[in-house]
Amino acid sequence: MDTKQIVIIKKVMCAILAIALEELSKKNRR
Questions:
Q1: 2 φ, ψ to 5°?
Q2: Cα separation of 22 and 29, whole Å?
Q3: How many Å apart are CA 20 and CA 27, to the nearest integer?
Q4: What DSSP state is assigned to residue 30?
Q5: What is the pLDDT of residue 29?
Q6: Cα dihedral angle (20, 22, 25, 27), rounded to 10 degrees?
Q7: ∠ CA(3), CA(8), CA(23), 5° rounding?
Q8: What is the Cα–Cα distance from 30 to 25, expressed in whole angstroms?
Q9: Is the dihedral of CA 21, 26, 27, 28 positive or negative?
């Protein structure tokens, strides 16, 4: 794997985790 690909994958994973955490926090507030 390219180092650039790894960096992109890490950024995508972080974005997905951030969105998932936001969704969970919204559900918990209700």
A1: -75, 150
A2: 11
A3: 11
A4: -
A5: 80
A6: -70
A7: 145
A8: 9
A9: positive
What are the pLDDT digits (tens) for 1-30?
799 999 999 999 999 999 999 999 998 887
Encoded tokens for 13: 């994973």
Q: Can you tell me which residue has the tokens 């960096």?
A: 7
As given in the structure block, the two tokens for residue 29 are 């507030």
**Rounded-to-integer distance, Cα 1 and Cα 6, Å:** 7
The residue with tokens 């650039």 is 4
Residues in the chain: 30
Q: 26 is written with which tokens? A: 């919204």
